[in-house]
What we know:
This protein is an alpha/beta fold. The protein is built from seven helices and ten strands. One adenosine-5'-diphosphate (ADP) binds next to α2 and α3.
Amino acid sequence: GQTLALKGLEKRYENAVAVDGVSLVIRAGEFLSVLGPSGSGKTTLLTMIAGFENPSSGQIMIGPQDVTFVAPNKRNIGMVFQRYALFPHLTVAANIAFPLRMRHMSESLIRPKVEAALAQVHLGDYGNRYPHQLSGGQQQRVAVARAIIFEPPVLLMDEPLGALDKKLRETLQLEIKGLQQRLGATVVYVTHDQEEAMTMSDRVAVVANGRLAQVGSPLELYRSP
Length: 225
Ligand code: ADP
Ligand code: ADP
């Protein structure tokens, strides 16, 4: 993983300030959750880190590199969305292979990587299926496999388990945590589920109205009034 540093990040819209001066250093290999109610600016924050939106002001550093205005596909960031966002017309294998093909990796290297990724997310036999033939949990596993296939140093997840039932959520929490630790990836994990944030994270950043209200380890947050 690599250190992710946010410095005075702001996103202003005409009638709203979505992110209002967020400064935070997320250590290499750290699992940080961003916890807050709907409308508190979580998605906007993640979208700026991913590069899909430019900040109104502030700076984003990944390791030594200033990526504030670098194109999304040049940031070396993996991203998982709540609604999977798989390509419906591509097979599971082709979905997972997509980021490698974007990077012009040769087919002979892609195949073993896709095979390994399928095994890692317990979908060894599903490579030739299409997304609509999979359950919600399986689709989200594919989305996770696609996000980690190029071993990104930074992994962003926006409520990745929000659409799943509680039991499946708990299973996938463990799986995601395991994959993250094996990769050593720096993770920013958006959720509005306090329990999820507390069980998965090294630190939790609580946001309200676009600002950081509190940042600390689960234990520190639990103890504070
Ligand atoms: P969360 O992910 O915590 O639900 P968002 O980042 O989606 O919060 O939104 C934060 C605030 O910014 C909200 O008040 C939302 O209405 C506003 N907002 C988000 N995107 C836009 C946009 N494209 N134009 C105007 N306001 C927006
Ligand atoms: P396309 O028609 O776009 O080539 P495929 O699904 O045939 O889509 O293959 C996508 C990529 O995934 C290819 O690089 C291929 O080598 C790999 N691949 C295809 N099927 C499997 C599978 N069952 N297990 C592992 N890798 C696969």
